[in-house]
Amino acid sequence: MLFFELAYTNEISGNLQVYWNYGQDLSEEKSTTLFIESTTEDKASIFPINAWGDNTRLAAIRIDPPNGSKFTIKKLLILEIEIQVN
Fold first, then answer.
1. pTM for this structure?
2. Where are the domains of the chain?
3. In whole angstroms, what is the distance from residue 29 CA to residue 22 CA?
4. 28: helix, strand or coil
5. Cβ atoms within 10 A of the Cβ of 9, count?
6. Is residue 3 within 8 Å of 79, Cβ to Cβ?
7. 33 — alpha (psi -120 to 50), left (phi > 0) or beta?
8. Phi/psi class of residue 11: alpha, beta or left (left: φ > 0; alpha: ψ in -120 to 50)?
9. Does residue 42 register a pLDDT over 90?
10. How confident is the model at residue 79 (pLDDT cuts 50, 70, 90)?
């Protein structure tokens, strides 16, 4: 399963929304929303990447931080994590 790791600082608590573009328009269905707290220390969050199938090219990522916040991106990673269910 693929995940997106985002390290950041953020001045205002609120919703952070990440949109995934696979060559079509951006949509709510292909996005992930996470509530984040304000922080002056580097913070990392991991999101699942929605709807990225085999042989599909990820064309763009759009990050919408909380409204009115000074949001600084420190690091972006795409991770493949194997999840085992017993």
1. 0.79
2. 2-80
3. 12
4. helix
5. 16
6. yes
7. beta
8. alpha
9. yes
10. confident
